[in-house]
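Narrative of accomplishments. A recurring question from our advisory board has been how the design workflow behaves on a single, concrete structure rather than in aggregate. To address it, we present the structure tokens for one chain from the evaluation set, followed by the sequence designed for it. No filtering or post-editing was applied between the two.
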């Protein structure tokens, strides 16, 4: 691959995994290869503690940075120039690199920062910085050295077989590679919170499956399309997502007909959790995930969450539980789900809302109300009507 483009990919938390580090590195490399397979002549290798991506010269740098930047486990990426580990060759490449920066970024001052990863290289890091800086000054008359606040820092990273020259570190999301932390089932609504919750759990290495509840015909086909669009946005980060859709309307109607109005919200929520747990166990998901946020609505008070959790045996992950709503909105904007989430299509939680929902439910009272319902039959009927769609990246 002559004239190839080179990218240094750094990982953050993966580097702290001790004896398990090779496993996490392998999973990270596999994920990078997967998102880059659409491009021609891509190589992903591990070299002296670095992950290095090489592509054909015609492949867009912007596209590569965008795709790698969405891979969880990646901390930062640097487009780089490769050169042999020889001071003359490094100097020539650094001068050419600096000239490119003058043309593209109009820099006036610079600083060279060298790192000698290969301790057998005969020139130490401070001396590499000094000598290469001197060559740049000679080769680029318009530049001056500024060691305190330069327009640009030119990094020289000397490894065992190759030296990399770069000036930029593009930050990525960090976290852990997908697939290193099991699989979770997100209760995916069409709102702002649940897509962000799915994103955050995927960032911790968890594969994502989804269950979506609707109340057709009270909820529309457009509301369902909105949920699929949200899942499609998430696949850029989470990979393929299966969505299990369940009609909740028969259960809601039974609750409204037989139970106290103020308990409707918490009773519906408990049924959602019970059905989600059935789906999770069938699909080998080890946890349930929700976008619940403490105190945001009546079903998300501390008392209500305790009663909700009592409906299931699986752990319930709530990554947004203590987040400020503004923080959630900012994260939704960052990952690209916000504009879709705010489209004005109804979801099942807006159907049969009580005027005064109970915010401090007691489990004994809720269980008494549930005893008025044919709970198992209702859940079985809902599961029997379940449909599943697969959303691919």
């Amino acid at each position: 691959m002559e004239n190839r483009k080179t990218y240094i990919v750094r990982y953050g938390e993966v580097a702290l995994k001790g004896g398990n580090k090779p496993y996490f590195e392998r999973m990270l490399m596999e994920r990078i290869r997967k998102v880059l397979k659409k491009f021609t002549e891509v190589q992903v290798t591990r070299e002296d503690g670095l992950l290095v991506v090489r592509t054909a010269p015609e492949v867009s740098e912007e596209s590569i940075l965008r795709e790698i930047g969405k891979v969880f486990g990646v901390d930062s990426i640097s487009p780089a120039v490769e050169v042999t580990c020889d001071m003359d060759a490094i100097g020539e490449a650094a001068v050419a690199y600096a000239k490119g920066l003058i043309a593209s970024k109009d820099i006036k001052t610079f600083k060279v920062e060298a790192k000698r990863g290969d301790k057998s290289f005969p020139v130490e890091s401070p001396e590499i910085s000094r000598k290469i800086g001197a060559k740049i000054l000679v080769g680029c008359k318009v530049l001056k050295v500024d060691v305190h606040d330069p327009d640009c820092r030119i990094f020289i990273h000397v490894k065992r077989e190759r030296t990399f020259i770069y000036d930029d570190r593009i930050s990525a999301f960090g976290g852990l590679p997908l697939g290193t932390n099991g699989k979770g089932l997100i209760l995916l609504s069409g709102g702002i919170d649940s897509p962000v919750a799915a994103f955050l759990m995927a960032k911790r290495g968890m594969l994502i499956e989804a269950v979506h509840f609707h109340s057709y015909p009270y909820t529309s086909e457009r509301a369902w399309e909105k949920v699929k669009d949200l899942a499609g946005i998430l696949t850029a980060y989470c990979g393929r997502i299966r969505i299990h859709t369940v009609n909740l309307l028969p259960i809601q109607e039974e609750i409204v007909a037989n139970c106290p109005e103020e308990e409707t919200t918490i009773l519906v929520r408990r049924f959602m959790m019970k059905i989600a747990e059935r789906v999770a166990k069938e699909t080998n998901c080890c946890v349930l995930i929700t976008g619940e946020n403490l105190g945001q609505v009546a079903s998300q008070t501390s008392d209500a969450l305790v009663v909700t959790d009592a409906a299931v045996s699986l752990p319930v992950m709530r990554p947004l539980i203590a987040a400020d709503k503004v923080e959630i909105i900012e994260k939704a904007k960052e990952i690209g789900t916000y504009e879709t989430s705010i489209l004005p299509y109804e979801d099942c939680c807006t159907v049969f809302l009580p005027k005064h929902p109970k915010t401090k439910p007691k489990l004994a009272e809720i269980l008494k109300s549930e005893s008025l319902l044919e709970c198992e039959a209702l859940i079985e009927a809902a599961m029997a009507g379940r449909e599943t769609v697969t959303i691919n990246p």
